[in-house]
């Protein structure tokens, strides 16, 4: 039997891209999925489509920069399905630009969503997972946590932070908490829409010539989820084959 069937999986940033693909794949494989993001009309559509296929799915509006929202999202997962087995901290933004342009508001937003959003997720779900005897955090990082490229200093910094937080959580998690970092290369999604600087947008389009479908990352996530409870997949890096 699949280790995915029956698991309660809460996913932040499930309204598009990787989060949406993960929600759809895990639901197809029998997970009970809980979708969170700000664009609730998108979530509604995905949940309706999944339910029409007899999959178990619910959604709640979520802004990961608001700690109360994240607490309420995890509570909602537990109220809906009785527990939370997996929290996928996936919500993220990538408004890249050179440091000298001083887009300080965008730096703040990246820190709030990409770092604090993950920390709020851990704060909300860790006590419940401990109480219920185990759980699994899947934190979506990036190859940007391995290599800094032009215009990506702050974005990379947030993803380096996600890796550090994940490793700390793994060490503190004891025998029952699993922690997986997923590090995608360029993947089809709406992420580049968060770039406001036109020159950076053009540079990134060039860089993202070889690109993965979001389903490829969803399959990597499913691989980590489906391992037996005593197997903790710590990191998966997925790049397009054509990326040098
Ligand atoms: P998308 O832009 O398609 O998805 C991002 C998701 O995050 C959306 O569902 C969005 O929903 C959500 N989100 C953004 N801000 C918030 C917020 N404040 N509160 C709650 N949800 C929020 O991009 P991806 O699917 O690519 O991004 C998913 C993750 O993958 C990110 O962490 C990203 O850094 C990472 N990643 C992506 C790569 C790529 O090439 N695509 C490569 C490496 C890593 P909404 O706007 O409705 O709130």
Task: Give a short summary of the structure.
With 244 residues, the chain is of the alpha/beta class. It has a single domain (8-238), classed as Rossmann fold, CATH 3.40.50. Helices cover 46% and strands 16% of the residues.
Structure, explained:
This protein is α/β, with parallel strands linked by helices and 244 residues long. The chain has one domain: Rossmann fold. It is globular, with a radius of gyration of 17 Å. It starts with 7 loop residues before the first strand and ends in a 6-residue tail after the last strand. The mean pLDDT is 96. The site of NADPH dihydro-nicotinamide-adenine-dinucleotide phosphate has 29 residues, from helix 1. Pfam families: adh_short (PF00106).
The proportion of residues in beta strands is: 15-25%
SSE string, helices as H and strands as E = EHEHEHEHEHEHHE
Q: What is the tally of helical segments? A: 7
Please mark out the parts with pLDDT under 50 across 5 or more consecutive residues, or reply none.
none
Shape: globular
Domain unit count: 1
| Overall pLDDT level | 96
Distance between the termini: 38 Å
């Amino acid at each position: 039997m699949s280790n995915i069937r029956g698991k309660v999986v809460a996913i932040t940033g499930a309204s598009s891209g990787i989060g949406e693909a993960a929600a759809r794949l895990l639901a197809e494989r029998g997970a009970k999925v809980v979708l969170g993001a700000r664009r609730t009309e998108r979530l509604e559509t995905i949940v309706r489509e999944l339910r029409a296929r007899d999959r178990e799915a619910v959604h709640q509006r979520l802004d990961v920069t608001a700690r109360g929202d994240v607490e309420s999202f995890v509570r909602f997962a537990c109220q809906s399905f009785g527990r939370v087995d997996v929290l996928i901290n996936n919500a993220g933004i990538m408004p890249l630009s050179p440091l000298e342009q001083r887009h300080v508001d965008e730096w703040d937003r990246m820190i709030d969503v990409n770092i604090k959003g993950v920390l709020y997720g851990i704060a909300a779900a860790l006590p419940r997972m401990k109480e219920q005897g185990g759980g699994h955090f899947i934190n979506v990082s990036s190859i940007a946590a391995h290599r800094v490229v032009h215009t990506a200093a702050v974005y990379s910094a947030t993803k380096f932070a996600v890796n550090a937080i994940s490793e700390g959580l793994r060490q503190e998690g004891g025998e029952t908490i699993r922690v997986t970092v997923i590090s995608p290369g360029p993947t089809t999604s709406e992420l580049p829409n968060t770039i406001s600087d036109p020159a950076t947008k053009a540079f990134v389009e060039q860089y993202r010539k070889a690109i993965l479908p979001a389903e490829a990352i969803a399959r990597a996530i499913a691989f980590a989820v489906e391992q037996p409870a005593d197997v903790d997949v710590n990191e998966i890096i997925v790049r397009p084959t054509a990326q040098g």
